[in-house]
Amino acid sequence: FPSHDNITVISPISKWDIGVTELNILVQNEFNPAQKGKVFKQNKKEFRIGDPILCTKNNYKVFSLNLDDEASVMNGEIGVFEGITKTGAMIIKFDCGQTVWTDASDLTLGYVLTVHKMQGSANRAIIFIGHSANTFMLNRQLIYTAVTRAKEKLIIIGTKKTLNSCVFKDGVKKRNTSLAQRIKESITKSKNT
């Protein structure tokens, strides 16, 4: 499997057979099989040295081996699982350097990401899962976001019929909130005081 620096698989959903969770496990098993002494398991999660790791929550106090102090790793950052400490913690290299993790609750595999997690990012090659089972999620805006993540190469897994019908489906819905009314009231109130 090419490095996560070169290729990313993206899916519109997290659950089910063609969702991020299941696809991550399939890709991990195919391209990074488990090896004794190179696996970190916690709460039904399994990470293997060499796996790309996605941080799913802002962490402002992660111990950094490079800084010999605390560092910050933000939601959406992808690192690489590089090793296991003598105490059984994970060493993951993020942009801030090597970090130590004893708790994997804010980490997932990063081989496959949701379209939402890929917003604002890009990669040389993108494999987009545009399967008919996802039509409830697929719309023009989501497809546009997915296909524009590719810098050089795009592979779409899906049928023309599915993608064509979704291109004509508008994902922007009129939202029924009272925010605009509250802002107007607040402006009126502040002008009167």
Instruction: Give the CA-CA distance, first to last residue.
Output: 64 Å
Shape: flat
Order of helices and strands: EHEEEEEEEEEEHEHEHH
Average pLDDT score: 86
What is the radius of gyration?
20 Å
Helix content: 10-25%
Structural class, judged by helices and strands? alpha+beta
Contiguous uncertain segments of 5+ residues: none
Strand residue content: 25-35%
Report the total helices.
5
Mind describing the biggest β-sheet? Answer: 7 strands, antiparallel
Order of adjacent strands in the largest pleated sheet = 6-5-9-8-7-4-10
Number of extended strands: 13
Features:
single chain; alpha+beta; 7-stranded antiparallel β-sheet; 24% helix
What does this 3D model show about the protein?
With 193 residues, the protein is α+β, with helices and mostly antiparallel strands. Helices cover 24% and strands 34% of the residues. It contains five helices and 13 strands. The strands form three sheets. Strands 6-5-9-8-7-4-10 form a seven-stranded antiparallel β-sheet. Strands 11-1-12-13 form a four-stranded parallel β-sheet. A two-stranded antiparallel sheet has the order 2-3. Strand 2 (39-42) and strand 3 (45-48) form a beta hairpin. The radius of gyration is 20 Å and the shape is flat. The N and C termini lie far apart (64 Å). The mean pLDDT is 86.
